[in-house]
Amino acid sequence: MTGAPKAAGTASARKIFNILLSYSEKAPLWTAQELAAKHQISMPTLYRYLAFLRDMGLIEGAGDSSYRLTEEVVHLARAARAGRSVLIEAAMPEMRRIRDEVNETVLIAGRTRDHVYCIERIESLQPVRLQFERGQPMSLHRGSLARVLLSGMPIKERTSYLARVLPEVSEENRALLTPENLEKVRSAGYTQSFDEVDEGIWGTAAAIQRGGEITAAIGVAAPTYRIDARMRGTIIELVREASQRITAAVAQEF
C-alpha cells in the first residue's frame, strides 16, 4: 500500500484512530498542522498517517489544505446505528416495564473510548432533574452506569484511563474505583451510586453483554427522597432481571 506507514505497534494504531476521532459535526475539517498540534505528532509522521488514511479511503483533501472524512465512513456509522437499533428494540419494552412499575427514569448507556453516553431514556412521570441527556458524553468514573461500563473495559485500557483521571477524583469516589471494587462490579454485573453525578440522585445500573463482553448498561435514576432501602432493593432486582433479558435478546440477533 503506497505511502502507508510501516507496522509500528499499538502506539501508531492508536494515533491513527485518534486522528479519525478528531472529526465531529462541529469539527469536520482539519489541517495537517492542526492535527499534528492536537495529537503532538511530528509533521513527517503525521503525513505518513494521513497517507495511510487516504489510501484506506477514509479521508480526502478538502481543497484548502485541510482534510475531511469521506463517504466511506458512512458505512461505519450505519453499522453503529444498526447495532444500536437492535439494542434499543430489545431494551425499550424492558425500560417501559420498569418505568411503569416504579415511575422513575430509566436509561440505556454505552461507551465510546473514555466516555459513557446516553443511548436512550424513558422519563419518570414525576419531577426529576438529570444531567444525562441522550447522546451526551459523561466521564467514566462517576455514576452507576459509568462504573458498570468501566468495569467491563479491558484491564490495560481501564488502568490507563484511571491513571489519567484519578488525580482529579475525590477521595470518596476514588475508593469506588479501586481494581478490587471494579472487579466486584464486573463480577456482580451491577452497582449503585449516591450523589455521584447529580446531587440528591440515587442510581443503579446493570450490565448488558454481547459475546461475553459488557457493551451497554441499563439503569434507573431517582431522587433519594423518593427511594427508601426497600424500594432500592426492588429497583435493583428489576434492573438486573431486565439486563439479563436484554442480553439474551441481543445475543439472538448476532
TrEMBL record:
Residues 72-252 form the IclR-ED domain. Gene3D superfamilies: 3.30.450.40, Winged helix-like DNA-binding domain superfamily/Winged helix DNA-binding domain. InterPro entries: GAF-like_dom_sf, HTH_MetabolicPath_Reg, Tscrpt_reg_IclR_C, Tscrpt_reg_IclR_N, WH-like_DNA-bd_sf, WH_DNA-bd_sf. Transmembrane segments: none annotated. The keyword Transcription regulation applies. Pfam families: IclR_C (PF01614). GO terms for biological process: negative regulation of DNA-templated transcription. SMART domains: HTH_ICLR (SM00346). Coiled coil: none annotated. The keyword Transcription regulation applies. One of its GO terms (molecular function) is DNA-binding transcription factor activity. PROSITE patterns: ICLR_ED. Keywords: DNA-binding, Transcription, Transcription regulation. This is IclR family transcriptional regulator.
